[in-house]
């Protein structure tokens, strides 16, 4: 068997590699497994390992990470595939690969090709609910969505927090999510802007105060506000495109764009340009003058 594992979803990609290796080692033992790094190891050493007989085992597995970065290995890939013995399981692990190359096209057509893309917002929520079910727990789709809103879209972090929640109680509730997880600062900044745009000035200032109480500096908060304004601008100037389409065009995570698109609909282009300019002016003053950035940010928020 020759399998290619690739894709931008680093969590799912590594998980799949671990599954493949664990299953093989359980049956044939550690001595039947060899790993190589395409960037570090000599191409001939990798080729020899593939063709050499297994040691004290019926089969062997050779895992090659980043073979695309090894010019000699990549140029010989068709010959390597055709000459790989039946008793060798070759795993080509390619976290980053240029899809325009002959190497990619050969792997796509001549190996068992498994690709792991990043999950969109809906896909992440479904994945979390399914993972909870695998552990004999229960997480509703709505609460999975809330967990993503609170923590962000990093799958490794989401998985670790999910296991923590399941350890506490197999029936995951929104109350337990609030109790056991720390909200992502970017999520709080989005809530802050949402409150300010909605005229909820007291709530906006309270959220700002919570960030300051957690030792988040004004300059860092301003940076996150600018990042959120950038997402709102992307959504605003993308017309009728969906968050998924904007994400693909701009190489930006889809999930925060969903909220940004909603905020973009409530603000005019003139107002958005004004807010961006004022935020940039605050940033410059904060770095070049003795301005009290803490008070200046509060004033900025209540005038949104």
Q: Strand fraction band?
A: 5-15%
CA radius of gyration: 25 Å
What structural class results from the helix and strand content? alpha/beta
Q: In whole angstroms, how far apart are the ends?
A: 60 Å
What is the CATH first-level class name of the largest domain?
Answer: Mainly Alpha
* Quaternary form: single chain
Mean of the pLDDT scores?
A: 91
Number of helices: 16
Largest β-sheet summary = 5 strands, parallel
CATH architecture type of the largest domain = Up-down Bundle
Count up the domains. Answer: 3
Shape by Cα distribution: elongated
Helical fraction equals: 55-70%
Indicate the CATH topology of the largest domain: Zinc Finger, Delta Prime, domain 3
What order do the strands of the largest sheet run in, or round the barrel if closed? 2-3-4-1-5
- Given as residue ranges, the uncertain stretches (5+ residues, pLDDT < 50) are none
Order of helices and strands: EHEHEHHEHEHHHHHHHHHHH
Strand runs, count: 5
Tell me about this structure.
- The structure is a single chain.
- This protein has a five-stranded parallel β-sheet with strand order 2-3-4-1-5, with helices on both faces.
- Helix 6 packs across helix 7 (141-151), helix 12 crosses helix 14 (254-264) and helix 12 (218-236) packs antiparallel against helix 15.
- It is elongated.
- It has three domains: 2-115, 3-Layer(aba) Sandwich (Rossmann fold), CATH 3.40.50; 121-180, Helicase, Ruva Protein, domain 3 (Orthogonal Bundle), CATH 1.10.8; 185-302, Zinc Finger, Delta Prime, domain 3 (Up-down Bundle).
- It has helices at residues 10-28, 43-51, 71-75, 77-83, 102-110, 121-134, 141-151, 155-168, 174-180, 185-197, 201-213, 218-236, 243-250, 254-264, 269-288, 293-302, and strands at 2-6, 33-37, 60-65, 88-94, 112-115.
- The longest helix has 20 residues, at 269-288.
- The mean pLDDT is 91.
- Helix content is 62%, strand content 9%.
- By secondary structure, the chain is of the alpha/beta class.
């Amino acid at each position: 068997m020759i399998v290619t594992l690739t894709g931008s979803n680093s969590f799912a990609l590594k998980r799949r590699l671990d599954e493949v290796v664990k299953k093989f080692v359980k049956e044939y033992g550690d001595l039947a497994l060899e790993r190589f790094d395409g960037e570090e190891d000599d191409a001939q050493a990798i080729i020899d390992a593939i063709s050499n007989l297994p040691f004290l085992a019926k089969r062997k597995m050779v895992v090659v990470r980043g073979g695309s970065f090894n010019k000699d290995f990549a140029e010989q890939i068709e010959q390597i595939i055709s000459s790989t013995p039946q008793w060798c399981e070759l795993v080509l692990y390619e976290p980053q690969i240029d899809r325009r190359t002959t190497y990619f096209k050969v792997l796509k057509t001549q190996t068992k090709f498994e690709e792991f893309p990043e999950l969109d917002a809906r896909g992440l929520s479904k994945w979390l609910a399914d993972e909870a079910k695998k552990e004999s727990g229960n997480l509703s789709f709505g609460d999975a969505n809330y967990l993503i809103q609170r923590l962000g879209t990093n799958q490794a972090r989401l998985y670790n927090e999910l296991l923590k929640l399941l350890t506490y109680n197999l029936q995951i509730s929104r109350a337990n999510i609030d109790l056991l997880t720390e909200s992502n600062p970017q999520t709080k900044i989005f809530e802050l802007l949402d409150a300010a745009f909605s005229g909820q000035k007291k709530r906006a200032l309270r959220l700002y105060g919570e960030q300051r109480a957690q030792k988040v500096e004004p300059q860092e908060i301003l940076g996150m506000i600018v990042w959120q304004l950038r997402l709102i601008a992307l959504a605003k100037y993308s017309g009728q495109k969906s968050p998924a389409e904007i994400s693909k065009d701009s190489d930006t995570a889809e999930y925060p764009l969903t909220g940004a698109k909603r905020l973009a609909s409530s603000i005019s282009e003139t107002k958005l340009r004004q807010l961006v300019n004022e935020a940039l002016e605050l940033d410059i003053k904060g770095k070049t003058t003795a301005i009290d950035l803490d008070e200046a940010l509060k004033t900025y928020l209540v005038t949104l």
